[in-house]
Amino acid sequence: MRAFGVVAAAFAVSLSSLSFEASAQTVLKFSHTDQPGGARQKAAELFGKKIEEYTQGRYKLQTYPAGQLANDPKSVEQLQLGGLDFAVTGTGTYATHIPELNLTALPYLVETYPQGWKFYDESAWLKKQFDKGPAKGFRFLATWEAGYRIMSTREPLGTVDAAKGMKLRTYPNEMMRWMLEAMGFSVQLIPIPEVYLAIQQGAVSGQENPIDTVYANKFYEVAPHLTLTNHAYNATPLTISEKTWAKLSPADREAITKAAKETADWIRKEIVANEDRQLKEMEAKGAKVSRPDLASFRKAVEPAYAKAKEKYGADLEAVMADAERIRKAVPAN
Prior knowledge:
Blueprint: H1 2-24, E1 26-31, H2 39-54, E2 59-64, H3 72-81, E3 86-88, H4 113-122, H5 124-130, H6 133-136, E4 138-153, E5 167-170, H7 174-183, E6 186-189, H8 195-200, E7 206-210, H9 211-217, E8 225-227, E9 233-241, H10 242-247, H11 250-284, E10 288-290, H12 295-300, H13 302-312, H14 314-329
Parallel strand pairs: 1-2, 1-3, 5-6, 5-7, 8-10
Antiparallel strand pairs: 3-9, 4-7, 4-8, 4-9
Helix pairs in contact: 2-11, 7-13
């Protein structure tokens, strides 16, 4: 009987240990506004697998796509409050809290993906801005990818002249507003989960977003004229709540940062590899793709640079210097 009692006690301890290990796994919440079929959600799933692997299962990622928990601006606010652990959104979204980041949306700042990657990886000015994050309640971990932004409209947009008076949806960002208004658009701010219906009902004539976003959200169904203006490079930095970061051990910080950077490498390749295929698929479903001469668009957005110079002065000069150095180091042709 005594032997049985010892075995039973040992079994109970073993069960208790297993229960403790199971409950010790921490669930981290990740919000984004991409659709489940988009590259950002695939990247989030990969990021989650890497986190579990690199932390030996101590952490598990719960992803909420399509703005289920918050739109882009609200997700950053939730990071600050500690209501979310991770968010990934365009750099311009963070500009509400770090205004100088508006300058990352300068029109035609970089011309190719390799230039864009090098700018985000090596710009001394940008690193200085990202270093302001922790004091604002979030920390930049790695730069993910969305792609160059294009126009998706109900009517053709062959030249910039066709933009005059057209209602176009964009996200809340000062530089983007300056740029689009300089082109002649009437800018409308609408959360991305509401954009499809807004176009369908005629509240706006179209929207602007990267190809992967247009594809994943099926905007081409209601705004079938896709104009490859490539007017702004759209990187999407991944951030972690500073409240969450403070709770992590040094080893887990290193593991999560490693997972973030490796996933950044993956999504950069994924976006580039898929664009031609996505355009062809959208064309097969009725979309009309045009590749306009960009000279008129580049000329039209010059007032946006003038406004940026007036407001940001030395920061604009620093951004332009970094971008020029990178364009020379990585020629477009």
